[in-house]
Amino acid sequence: MPEFLTLHEIVKKAKQNLDQGSWDYLVGGAETESALRRNRAGVESWLFKPRILNDVTHVQCATELLGSPLRIPILMPPIGSIQVFEESGAVGVARAVQEFGILQILSSACLPSFEEVAVQVPGPRIYQLYLVGDQAWMDDIIARAIAAGYTGFCLTADTQTYSRRERDMLKRYVPMSGRVAGGGDFNAQAAMSWETVAHIKETFDIPLVIKGVGVAEDARRCVEAGVDVVYVSNHGGRQLDHTRACIDVLPEVVQAVDGAAPIVVDGGFMRGADVVKALCLGATAVGMGRLEGLAMAAGGEDVLLQALHILEHEIRTTMALAGVSSLAQLGPELLTREAPLAPPHVLSAFPFLAEGY
Ligand SMILES: Cc1cc2nc3c(=O)[nH]c(=O)nc-3n(C[C@H](O)[C@H](O)[C@H](O)COP(=O)(O)O)c2cc1C
After folding, report:
1. pLDDT, tens only, 95-108
2. Of 100, 71, 17, nearest to 300 (Cα)?
3. Atom 20 (ligand 1): residue with closest C-alpha?
4. Which of 33, 97, 226, 276 falls between 20 and 30 A from 323, CA-CA?
């Protein structure tokens, strides 16, 4: 296993390892892919206003979510078909995540099954479900997830219908998760409502994460419904196109939630500095979806583990150079906004790839 010193090398290796169909499925988005590019544009628009001459000998960047420690404020979000990128799939992610000390949200659209992952890698983990059955079916799955030891349950609410991923459609590429989504009863997913949320909260004693919040009003409804984690996401620009960058949704959601629940955000976060920006704007933790897939594609759990170490180094370095030594010191006063230097795209966090490195 080669030693990767930078995330650049990991992304390059992933590209070498994947066929065009799998690569496009991983890096692509919906329709014109504007939401995908806007996620990056948003992240790149925030700049640091560093402070100097603060003692940064010890930088503390550990936190917790739903009672589970996070060595760095990062989550591995649900990635359907993760086994397409590397055969160990969700188990490989689970092992790397556990060894490093963060949290995984396991997708219902990937292999192995949630129960098998729980047996092979016991420990705190959140289960994300796509509803492809009726309420009794959902209740049975949630009860089984609790019995299997899952410490949180995540409902993805931005996927009430499957989007038009034209990059895949043009090649007639059908990802495994697309088959699950299209092949199951997607009507149940379409029929999800705030009543579904109320039902889960009334029936089960497991923390509930609502993923796909895109506006303050829905964040407020989550809080009113007793949701335990408000997860700001546009599915990495893979569902509704022409949405705002998730990092730009964050401030209004932080204001609406007003400390009532932790806030997770994802969408376009590829580097440690990107993560620190989201923390400055009030996120508790940041999901890194494509990076998870890219690291797995580059060499499975060992490379994902290396990527997490690199991210930790990047976060610590960014915090120290911005003049802060703890997460509590991060705030919006450390940021300002400017237009990005160049048109952002899904991999613009890795500018040296274009130079052939
Ligand atoms: C290949 C792929 C598969 C995904 N599958 C799921 C899924 O099964 N469930 C889900 O809630 N989100 C899924 N997502 C969305 C991610 O959980 C996350 O919201 C998104 O990747 C964040 O954006 P980023 O890739 O820019 O980090 C998927 C994303 C990708 C790239």
Report:
1. 999 999 999 999 99
2. 17
3. 236
4. 97
